[in-house]
Amino acid sequence: MRRPFAWLMSLAILGGGIVVSAPPPDFDPDEVRSVFFESLDDAIRGQRPKLGEMGTGPSTAKSKATNPSADSGNNDGTSVWNVGADAVSLEDEIKRLRLRFEQGITTPGAFRSGGYQDARLDLTVLATWFAVINEFEGDVRWKDDAAVARDVLARTARNTQSGTIQVYNEVKKRAADLQDLVSGSGLAAAKADPDNDWATIADRVPLMRYAEQLLDDLSDATSDVATAKEEAEVASRNADLIALLGVVLTREGLDEADDPDYVELAEAMTNAGRSVKQAVRQDRWGDLRSAVGEISKTCANCHEQYR
């Protein structure tokens, strides 16, 4: 039984091999027309792809625009903080507030006699600006430490409800932290949440008091053309801060942030602040006072309805 098989194997080797193939299948064209396309062009919808266009995905910018951050982005994908403010305005204001804060906590007696209220205001505002820096686009100092600074300052601000010695000691620690931060040493603290929880950071009442202070200084710096030219840097910085503050007041978690009328007033304040900045930059001194007056009008309307 093995000899025929061996003979066939020998013949295949000596003769170069025997190839045995089955006959090609015979398909009925009518049966396969519903399964296969007659032409490749029929299988492609629209234009056939070109080699140079293959392998490209959606742009990063488009992806970001269609998925903006819930709280720090506009519907068009831009940052809510994109109001024309300069990073240096935030940096200079933090340094100014730090000095004012330190000068108000020199002794426990002065702190107990009412200085704690000023300290609470300064701590709240400082925490707010570090929260803004945390979300601010572009290069700005202290960004790496902004979230930590935001949390420790906001916590102490909440604790500063009285002028006790315990509160005073905690406040003094924050002054030391700010000194370390400004000097470049950074903050030694646990890692902070990268997202801002505005309900635990800012409070509308002290922020409105702060807005009044900014407006008073802005009004003094723009009282006449000569003064405005001399105090152009102050006017520009305060205009930036007022514009940013209008955005802060509408963050989720703050009082009335879901009230359309309140949001409209806050946005009007932001727009008026931008107008002041533009007038200063473009030397339009005739428009400057009217822009400052618009901020005053907006603040008065807001205080009347939401104080």
Order of helices and strands: HHHHHHHHHHHHHH
Overall geometry: globular
Main β-sheet description: none
Mean pLDDT: 82
**Unreliable segments of 5+ consecutive residues:** 1-20, 31-37, 40-70
Percentage of residues in DSSP E strands:
under 5%
Please, how many domains? 2
Rg over CA atoms: 34 Å
According to DSSP, the number of beta strands is 0
Could you say which structural class the secondary elements and strand pairing correspond to? Answer: mainly alpha
- Count of alpha/pi helices: 14
C-alpha end-to-end distance: 109 Å
Can you give the helix content as a percent range?
55-70%
Describe the protein's topology.
Blueprint: H1 3-14, H2 29-32, H3 40-43, H4 60-66, H5 87-103, H6 108-135, H7 146-159, H8 165-183, H9 198-201, H10 204-221, H11 225-230, H12 232-248, H13 260-281, H14 285-306
GO molecular function: electron transfer activity; heme binding; iron ion binding
Region (Disordered): 47-78
Coiled coil: 211-238
Would you write up a description of this structure?
The protein folds into two domains: 87-200; 203-306, Four Helix Bundle (Hemerythrin (Met), subunit A), CATH 1.20.120. The longest helix is centred in the middle third of the chain and has 28 residues, at 108-135. The termini are far apart. α5 (87-103) runs antiparallel to α6 (108-135). The protein is globular and about 50 Å long. The protein has 307 residues and is mainly α. The protein is built from 14 helices and no strands. Helix content is 63%, strand content 0%.
